[in-house]
Amino acid sequence: MYRKILITTDGSAVSKHTACEGVKFAQQMGAEVLALYVAPEYQYPVYVEIIPPTYPSEEEYLVQMQRVGGDHLAPILKAAEAAGLEHRGMVAFADGAAQKIVDVAGAEHCDLIFMGSHGRSGWGQLLLGSVTNKVLSHTQKPVLVHRLVKAPGT
User: Pfam families, from UniProt (predicted)?
Assistant: First the structure.
């Protein structure tokens, strides 16, 4: 049914748990996994006349965020490897994570987007996460929203 599944993570514990559930789902489908971490774009300090010497350059920031993204993607890729699935990780940069998720899903010809109902910015169980809600509003691809009933480790 699904041949390529985009699994997103924001690096939070909840998101990592959800992403590993996405790998289990991909294994049931025999689907390829594309794991995605969306990092914020580099921001120049706009309210200072001189950039402080400790402020990272754009190149330093990009390298650092690639490393951070790789760290967040590692558990997903490890789970996909253990499940015997074809897999790949991607770190993308955008100020709007939801639109970047939708764009990557289209560009990479993913059949399904698998994401959590809440991530780093979730407000408990009250509302659907803002990124998830925006993805649902902006894509025509199927989105499987995984709802975590209890926090990881409980």
Answer: Usp
- 152, 14 Cβ separation under 8 angstroms: yes
Contact 77, 85 (CB under 8 A): no
Q: Which residues, given as ranges, of the chain have pLDDT below 70?
A: 47-48, 118-129, 149-154
**Predicted local distance difference test score (pLDDT) of residue 125:** 41
CA 102 – CA 89 distance, rounded (Å): 16
The domain locations on the chain are 4-146
At a CB cut-off of 8 Å and minimum separation 6, what does 57 contact? none
Beta bridge partners of 145: 115
List the CATH code of the domain at 4-146.
3.40.50.620
| Burial of residue 18, with CB atoms counted within 10 A of its CB: 0-12 exposed, 13-18 middle, 19 or more buried | buried
Contacts of 3 (CB under 8 A, 6+ apart): 31, 32, 111
Q: Give the pLDDT confidence score for residue 148 in this predicted structure.
A: 73
- Token pair, residue 136, equals 């649902």
